[in-house]
Structures are given as structure tokens and as C-alpha cells.
Amino acid sequence: MNRPLIAPSELETLTAQFGPQPHQHATVIGDGWWEEVRRSLSRRRGEVLMVIQRPGGEILVHTKAFYPPEAYRLPTGGIGWEETAWAALYREIDEETGLPVRSAMWWGLITYTLYPSEGAQDRGIPFVSFVFYVRTEGEPRVADRAEQIADFRWVSPEALPEIARRLESLDAPWRGWGAFRAIGHRFVWEHHREQLLLSRIR
């Protein structure tokens, strides 16, 4: 795969509109989940990580029918190779939640190197999450049943560290996936907790 996951012009556009945002790089041992990510890169270059907040201050998490029990997380969605992250954000919010976007902001970038195992340092593959914050209202509904979303919950922003901890504690074969998913939750809490907590009292 020779195509870059991040177009410099896209970052320039987002930075011009929303200002400089944090960028974190992480390495993850993907275990069996690594192969799924590798295959997915033929159709998508990364994902949007969606921090969706309603007027009362709660943020949206979901779980899917095939996840382990209580494995709730922030919604994400793929970015096609010919699609901007901004366009993917609006498409994925509609497909996964059906919620209206009242306002949206870019909140940063997480890049990853994913390895299939501890001893396979020559087989790393890249991945990227564009983090977006969205203000909404109403209740979510699934527009695309293929997403297999089983349940939504509105939770306090303070729940993010505990959600990350639960994801990190998943057993095989979900261990690598849980470690990967936990990173985004810690990123949001570390870099944007003040904005999330202030938003609930406005």
C-alpha cells in the first residue's frame, strides 16, 4: 500500500478551520484482529471517531450484537479512499445514529502502527483516526442495519476512563481490539475533558 492515509491538504484545511489540534501516535499488538484491519485498507484509509454530545452533557456510546458483554464505546466509521474525513463524519453519523449535526469540530488525530504479534515488528501496518466533536439533539436510531448496533447509551464524559479500562481488560480474541479502541477514549478525555464538562452546563 503506497497511498498515504492522510492528505496534507486535508490537514491544512482542518487546521485552518479549527486551529491546531493534538496528534498522538500509538503502537498496538492486534492479535487476530490485525488481519481484519489489513484487509479493510483496500476499501478505507482510516476512520472518524465521533464524540457526540447532547444538550444535557452526556455523550453517546454504543455496542454491537457480536461484541463481548458491556463492551460499549464511542462510535466510529470508515473513511473511503476518495472521501474526506469531514464528508465521512456526516455520512457515518447518519448511518450509525440518524442524529442531526447541530455543530461539528475537528478535535485531533490519532495515528497507529498495528502489529499482528509481539515478534512481528516487520509487519506493521498504519491506521488513522480523525477525532470529531459533534453537538446534537434527539435520540439515536440505526439507519444501516448492517452496522449490527445492538444498543446505545448516553453516558457522562467522566465515564470515558472507565470505558477505556474495560476495553483494555477484554480477553482474547478481543484483547488487541480492546487495546486499540481504548486509545481513542483516553485521547478524548486527556485532551478535551474541559470542553466536554463545560458543554454540559451551557
TrEMBL record:
Signal sequence extent: none
EC number(s) recorded for this UniProt protein: 3.6.1.-
Stored PROSITE patterns: NUDIX, NUDIX_BOX
Gene3D superfamilies: Nucleoside Triphosphate Pyrophosphohydrolase
Domain of life: Bacteria
Alphabetical list of InterPro entries matching this protein: NUDIX_hydrolase-like_dom_sf, NUDIX_hydrolase_CS, NUDIX_hydrolase_dom
Record-annotated Nudix hydrolase domain positions: 42-177
Pfam families: NUDIX
Recorded GO MF terms: hydrolase activity
Sorted UniProt keywords: Hydrolase
Cofactor: Mg(2+)
PANTHER family the UniProt entry points to: GDP-MANNOSE MANNOSYL HYDROLASE, MUTT_NUDIX FAMILY PROTEIN
Protein name (record): RNA pyrophosphohydrolase
Lineage: Bacteria, Bacillati, Chloroflexota, Thermoflexia, Thermoflexales
Gene: rppH
